[in-house]
Write a structure and sequence with these properties.
Bound molecules: flavin-adenine dinucleotide
Helix content: 40-55%
Structural class: alpha+beta
CATH superfamily of the largest domain: Butyryl-CoA Dehydrogenase, subunit A, domain 3
Radius of gyration: 21 Å
Distance between the termini: 30 Å
CATH architecture of the largest domain: Up-down Bundle
Order of helices and strands: EEHHHHHHHEEEEEEEEHEEHHHH
Shape: globular
Strand order of the largest sheet: 3-6-7-10
Number of domains: 3
Oligomer: single chain
Length: about 400
C-alpha cells in the first residue's frame, strides 16, 4: 500500500486513503467490540488475553510494515501508526504487540536476517503465529547499551553466551529472544553481536517480575544466559554488527511508542470531554470552568501535535531515510504529552479518576512507563540537544 494513493478523507487528523481508512476502522471496530469490555480485567490480572491475540492474528494485525513477501501486511508507515494508535486508545499493551514484529523484535531480522532466519522467525511473527522478545537492557545497564556485560566466546562454529538481561517483555509468550552480547567489552558498541535464541535453548532461564505499576499484562522480567550454546544459524548479521541491528529496531520501535502515546492522549481527551460535559459542581457543568477547559485544550493540542510529529517520522522512514532525530523527538514528545494528559484526565475525573470503573487511571500508570521504555525521555532530551548542536550526527548511533 502506498501513502501516495489518493487522500480522500481524514480520520483523527491523519491523511487517509480509502484503504488506510478501512484498516483503521477495522482496528477501531475490533478494539471497541472485543478489547474494551475486557481490558480492565486482564490488566488487573496481569495476563495477556491469548484468545484476542488469535483473533488479531486472523485479522492480520501483526503484519504491520513487514513486506508481504516476508509474511507481513506491507503497510506504509503512516497507516501502521494509525493502526497502533487506534488499538492503543483502548489498550496500549496490545498496541505494543502490534508494533513488535515491525519494530523492536522484527525489524532487525527483516533487515539483517538470512532467508532462513526470516522464514523461521519473521514470517510466523508477522502472521501472529508466534511472538518474540527483544532482550537488550541488563541489570546494570539500560540507557548505556554499549556498557552491557553479557559476553560470548567462540567454540569452533558455535557461540557460548553468558550474562543476564533485565526487563525483557513477552517472557510468557516469546518463542525466541533477540539478544546482544559482546566478544570484547573494551570495544564498547563495536564489540556487540546480535543473536536469535530459541526459547528452549539449554542454559536459558526466565524470571518474570510481578505487580508492575503499569504495562501490567505484559510479562516482563529477567533472561539469564548460562553457557547458552548457539550454532551459526543464531548469528544475526555479522559479528560486531549488533549495534546496527539494535539501532534499526529502536528507530521503528520508538515510532511505535510515539503512536501508542498518541492513542493514550486521545483516549484521555475523549474521556475527559465526556466526563466534563456530564459532571456538575456548584450548580454548573464542570466543562464551564476555565481551568478544566485549559486542560482539555492542552490535551487536544498535544494529541494533534504528537500525531503530526509521528506522521513526519513515518513519512521519513517510508522514504527509506534514517530518522534518528525525528524518532527521538516523537517518542519523547508524545510520551511526555501522554503523561501530562493522563495526569490531567485523572484530575478532571476527581475521585472517579482513581476508580477502576474509569480507564484514565490505567492510562496514567501506562503513560508514566511510556516515558521510560525505548530510551528514557531524559536520554532522548540529551540526544536531541546533542544532535541539534552537531555533537552527535543524526544516524551515528
Ligand atoms: C514495562 C517495561 C518493559 C520493558 N521492556 C523491555 C524490553 O522488552 N526489552 C528491553 O531490552 N528493555 C525493556 N525495558 C527496559 C527499558 O528499555 C529501560 O528501562 C530503559 O532503557 C531505561 O534504562 P534503565 O531503566 O536501566 O535506566 P538507566 O539507564 O539506569 O537510567 C536511569 C535514569 O538516568 C537518567 N539518564 C540515563 N542516561 C541519561 C543520559 N544520557 N542523559 C540524561 N539522563 C540520563 C534518566 O533519567 C533515566 O531514566 C522495559 C522497561 C519497562 C519498565
Amino acid at each position: 500500500m502506498s501513502i501516495e494513493s489518493e487522500r480522500s478523507e481524514r480520520v483523527d487528523g491523519l491523511p487517509h486513503s480509502d484503504e488506510r481508512q478501512a484498516i483503521i476502522e477495522m482496528a477501531r471496530d475490533f478494539a471497541t467490540r472485543e478489547i474494551a469490555p475486557r481490558v480492565a480485567d486482564y490488566d488487573r490480572a496481569e495476563e495477556l488475553p491469548l484468545d484476542l491475540l488469535d483473533k488479531m492474528a486472523g485479522l492480520g494485525l501483526f503484519g504491520g510494515v513487514v513486506p508481504v513477501e516476508l509474511g507481513g501486511m506491507g503497510l506504509d508507515f503512516v497507516t501502521f501508526i494509525g493502526l497502533i494508535e487506534e488499538i492503543s486508545k483502548t489498550c496500549q499493551i496490545l498496541g505494543t504487540l502490534v508494533s513488535m514484529p515491525s519494530g523492536l523484535v522484527g525489524a532487525g531480522i527483516e533487515r539483517f536476517g538470512t532467508t532462513e532466519q526470516q522464514d523461521r522467525w519473521l514470517r510466523p511473527l508477522a502472521q501472529g503465529e508466534i511472538f518474540g522478545a527483544a532482550a537488550v537492557t541488563e541489570p546494570g545497564s539500560g540507557s548505556d547499551v554499549a556498557a552491557m556485560t553479557t559476553t560470548y566466546r567462540r567454540d569452533g562454529d558455535d557461540f557460548i553466551l553468558n550474562g543476564a538481561k533485565a526487563w525483557t517483555s513477552n517472557l510468557d509468550i516469546a518463542s525466541f529472544f533477540l539478544t546482544f552480547a559482546s566478544f570484547d567489552r573494551s570495544m564498547r558498541h563495536r564489540g556487540i553481536t546480535a543473536f536469535v535464541i530459541p526459547r528452549d535453548a539449554p542454559g536459558l532461564s526466565l524470571n518474570p517480575y510481578k505487580n508492575k505499576l503499569g504495562f501490567r499484562p505484559l510479562c516482563t522480567g529477567e533472561v539469564v544466559l548460562d553457557d547458552v550454546r548457539l550454532g551459526p544459524e543464531a548469528l544475526l548479521g555479522v559479528e560486531g554488527g549488533g549495534f546496527s541491528v539494535a539501532m534499526t529496531a529502536v528507530e521503528r520501535g520508538r515510532l511505535g511508542v510515539a503512536a501508542r502515546a498518541v492513542g493514550v492522549t486521545q483516549a484521555c481527551l475523549d474521556d475527559s470531554v465526556a466526563y466534563a460535559r456530564d459532571r456538575t459542581a456548584f450548580g454548573q457543568s464542570i466543562a464551564e470552568f476555565q481551568i478544566v477547559q485549559s486542560k482539555i485544550t492542552d490535551m487536544a493540542v498535544g494529541a494533534k501535535t504528537s500525531r503530526l510529529l509521528g506522521q513526519a517520522c513515518a513519512e521519513a522512514l517510508g522514504r527509506g531515510e534514517r530518522a534518528r532525530l525525528l524518532t527521538s523527538m516523537a517518542k519523547m514528545y508524545a510520551s511526555d504529552v501522554a503523561a501530562r494528559s493522563a495526569a490531567d484526565a485523572v484530575q478532571i475525573h476527581g475521585a472517579a479518576g482513581v476508580s477502576p470503573d474509569y480507564r484514565v487511571g490505567r492510562m496514567y500508570r501506562d503513560a508514566k512507563v511510556l516515558q521510560i521504555v525505548e530510551g528514557s525521555n531524559d536520554l532522548h532530551r540529551s540526544l536531541i540537544g546533542e544532535m541539534e548542536l552537531g555533537l552527535r550526527p543524526d544516524g551515528e548511533r
